[in-house]
């Protein structure tokens, strides 16, 4: 599924598989660099599962109006995926719920990086996705303000 974020300097849009891969790799790197101890296995599993709901429900735009109501459709999609024969992650729904609720330090780190990556992609594409969607600086700051409180080292 194609996302709204542009990658490769604005050359093309990122797809969900790329986003999940980028997120998992960034989570692993941040977990190794930050002073806190993280369950890296749990973190990577959550990163890989975090957008599975969007496969069935569609891309949820960070600045979109239907963001709150999308949760129910996304959870239903994750449940269907979790029940699929051959699913290699037996606690997929639990992982997805954990990251949605932000109920662990791993989920907190995941949320930070999930916001940082598209932010950085927008910087390298000169704000292309923000411009195309009429997003202003105050909206970006509002949606990313929690990052410094969650992971202070990010601002250092």
Number of strands: 2
Second CATH tier, the architecture: Orthogonal Bundle
What's the mean pLDDT score?
Answer: 89
How many domains in all? 1
Keywords: Hydrolase, Metal-binding
Catalytic activity: a 2'-deoxyribonucleoside 5'-phosphate + H2O = a 2'-deoxyribonucleoside + phosphate
Subunit structure: Homodimer.
Cofactor: Co(2+); Mn(2+)
SSE layout and pairing:
Blueprint: E1 2-7, E2 12-15, H1 16-33, H2 40-49, H3 53-57, H4 67-82, H5 92-101, H6 105-124, H7 128-132, H8 137-144, H9 146-150
Antiparallel strand pairs: 1-2
Helix pairs in contact: 1-2, 1-6, 2-5, 2-6, 4-5, 5-6
State the main characteristics:
single chain; 156 residues; mainly alpha; Hypothetical protein af1432; two-stranded antiparallel sheet; 9 helices; 62% helix; 6% strand; globular; metal ion binding
What does this structure look like?
With 156 residues, the chain is mainly alpha-helical. Helix 1 (16-33) packs antiparallel against helix 2 (40-49). The chain has a two-stranded antiparallel sheet. The model has no long low-confidence stretch (mean pLDDT 89). The protein contains nine helices and two strands.
